Structures are given as C-alpha cells and as structure tokens.
Amino acid sequence: MITLTDIAEKAGVAVSTVSRVLNNKAQKYRISKATRDLVLQAAKELNYHPNELARGLRLNKTHTIGLMVPDISNPFFAYITHVIQTQASQYGYSLIVCSTNENINTEVEQIELLRRKGIDGYIIMPIGTKYEHIEELLNLNKPVVLIDRCIDELNTNSVSVDNYTGAYNAVEHLINKGHTRIAIIQGLPNTSTNTARVNGYKDALTKNGITVNPNYIVGNDFRKENGYIETKLLINLESRPTAIFSTSDLITLGALEAISEENLSIPDDISVVAFDDVDFAPFLFAPLTAVRQPRELMGEVAVKILIENISTRTNPQKKSIVLKPELIVRKSVLDLGRVHSISA
Q1: How far is CA 42 from CA 33, 34, 36, 39, 52, in A?
Q2: Which of 101, 137, 247, 298 has its CA 20 to 30 A from that of 77?
Q3: φ, ψ for residue 241 (rounded to 5)?
Q4: What's 167's domain CATH number?
Q5: How far apart are CA 67 and CA 125, in angstroms?
C-alpha cells in the first residue's frame, strides 16, 4: 500500500507538504506550483489512492449515502435507484442500497444497520405503514429525504408525485370514453401513495355521478401476483368491469398476464389504464394508456436536497417537493360512446 511517506521520498519533499497538496491546501500554505505538480506526478506514478476510511474518520464523514427501497425488483424503484446512484457518484458519494421486500421489520433492521455504519445521509422510499424508526433518525439530526411514499407526521425533506391528480385524471379519461364500470387494483393499504390514488379514483367517479362499487376496489400490495389474482377475479364477476385501473407497474404486469390467459383482448374486451408508465407500455399490441411519473427528476431532486443538507451540517427549512404526473394516452381504452353510436 502506497503511503504519503512513499510519495514524499519520490518527490523529495516533506510528508507534510504531500499531505497539504493532496488535501487541496497548497495555496493556503503557499506551496509553489512546481512543488505541487511534482507531488501530484509522484502520486500518479506510484498509483496512489487515498484511504477513504481514514479520511472519513478525520472529517467525520464517510461520503456514503444509504438508500432504502421497498422492492428492488419493482421497475419503478429500480429505475430511481439507478438515477440516485448516478447522481450520488457525481457528487463524490458512494451508495449502499437496501431492499426491504415490503417488510416493515426488515426496514427497521436495515435502517439500524446503516446508522451503525455512520453513513452521512439517508434517502428512504419507505413502506409507510410505520415511521417511528425514521423519526428516531430525525431526532438524531440525521439528513433524511423521503421519496414516493411520504409521511405527513414526519417533519422531513420529501419528494413525491401528485398521486391523487394522476389517479383522478386516469379514471376521468375512462369516464370520458363512456366507462362506468371501472375497477381499481390498489397497492399496499394505508400508504400515502395508495391512499391518494384510491381517493383520486373514488372522487373521479363521484364527481361524475357514478356510484362507487366496493366490489371493484380490490388488491392489497404493489406486486405482480396481486395484479394477476385480482384481475382473474374481476374478469369472472357476474357484472364484469369494462375497465381496470392498475396502480403500479408490477400490478399491471400481473393484470396483463391474467387478461391474456383469459383470451381477452385489450381494449375490445377490457380497457386498461396503468399508474407508472412502464418501459414496454408503448410497444404492446395495444399500447398502454398510463400515468407517467417523473422518475428521473424524483431521484435527482432527492440527491440534491440530501447533499445540501449534508454539506451545510445544519437543520435547514424542510423541503416538500410535489411533482406533477402526466397522463399518456395510447390505445388501451375502448371508446364505448363511439361503439354504441356505431351499433345504433
């Protein structure tokens, strides 16, 4: 392992001079440009890499961010993780990623593990059913940013999407196309994202004079299996819905599989609108109409807020950023009004 002493011997200068040059303090200590270049050249030739652990202990920083994800297999969370890693690297930070598998006990354990590692800050996409363990971090003045599922009871930085408006617009689009029997496959109950999407769904129906049918509100998590099972059940109802609003990309995958197995066609037999614009949505036989979340912007904004919080080492005014979703209209919704007029 190459040390500062090795560089000093090669450059013919004092160890203190090497230390000052490598810590960007040459100007402060009036070290000449020639000496600075000599030290840097010697370090390069010796292939010197600083000991980040030792440096972190001196500065009381690890230059590491912890990222908590509910389910890394979910394309939505995987994409945001990729964005966060890229952005963190640009700021000179490493990333530790923990996937909790939508298990609150695992989330509590993983946050405690990250805390013991002394990381500089946390970006948490929480499960959202409990929050006391996150509150403990805030009480310790740890820099924290929540993404996606935000918790109103916590006074912390957050980046989320207007889930209510996204769901409302999706359901109203179905209503405008003549649909009244609209089912929703929801995600994990009692989480902020799910609650907002279900409320948007209900209000769109109510404000358009359509009675909310409790038999059409189904589902209990954001996984593919949920979408598959609930779609199978919905399709076999005596009064089958003419449209399904799926509230996540994995739910949509399960729904599409079930529809295919039942030999039904989208949109002729059943219409589908999805929350989360999955990458393959435009390329299906019937390209999916979907609520697109600004995933890249969510990750970028979260990292920027966290780095600012870490750098200032203060307790600044908390930022609550709410981004707007966009309804992307494609061909997965049948216009019932047009069909009926043709039939008449």
Answers
A1: 14, 12, 10, 5, 19
A2: 137
A3: -65, 150
A4: 3.40.50.2300
A5: 8
Number of structural domains (the chain) is: 3
Q: Give the type of residue at 212.
A: V
Positions of the chain with pLDDT under 50: 53, 57, 344
Structure tokens belonging to residue 192: 């902020």
Residues 334 and 222 in one domain: yes
* Beta-strand relationship, 326-328 and 289-292: antiparallel
Which residue reads 């405690």 in tokens?
A: 112
Q: What is the pLDDT of residues 123-150, one digit of tens each?
A: 999 999 999 999 999 998 999 999 999 9
3-class DSSP state of 82: helix
Domain that holds residue 112: 58-161+295-323
Q: What is the pLDDT of residue 55?
A: 54
The pLDDT value recorded for residue 313 is 67
Judgement on whether residues 176 and 267 belong to the same structural domain of the protein: yes
pLDDT confidence of residue 137:
93
Same domain, residue pair 27 and 142:
no
Same domain? 207 vs 317:
no
Please tell me whether residues 45 and 62 are part of one structural domain.
no
Residues 337 and 227 in one domain: yes
Q: How far does Cα 272 stand from its chain's mean position?
A: 23
Q: pTM of the predicted model, to two decimals?
A: 0.81
- Looking at the fold, whether 152 and 230 belong to one and the same domain comes out as no
Q: What are phi and psi of 55, to 5 degrees?
A: -65, -40
Phi, psi of 127 (to 5 degrees): -65, -40
Report how far residue 187's alpha carbon sits from residue 148's, in angstroms, rounded to the nearest whole number.
Answer: 13
Which residue do the tokens 């037999």 mark?
269
Q: Are residues 236 and 332 in the same domain?
A: yes
**Whole-angstrom distance, CA of residue 106 vs CA of residue 119:** 18
Q: How far apart are CA 64 and CA 76, in angstroms?
A: 23
Q: Which two tokens stand for residue 195?
A: 């609650």
Closest by CA position to 142, among listed 66, 45, 255, 34 = 66
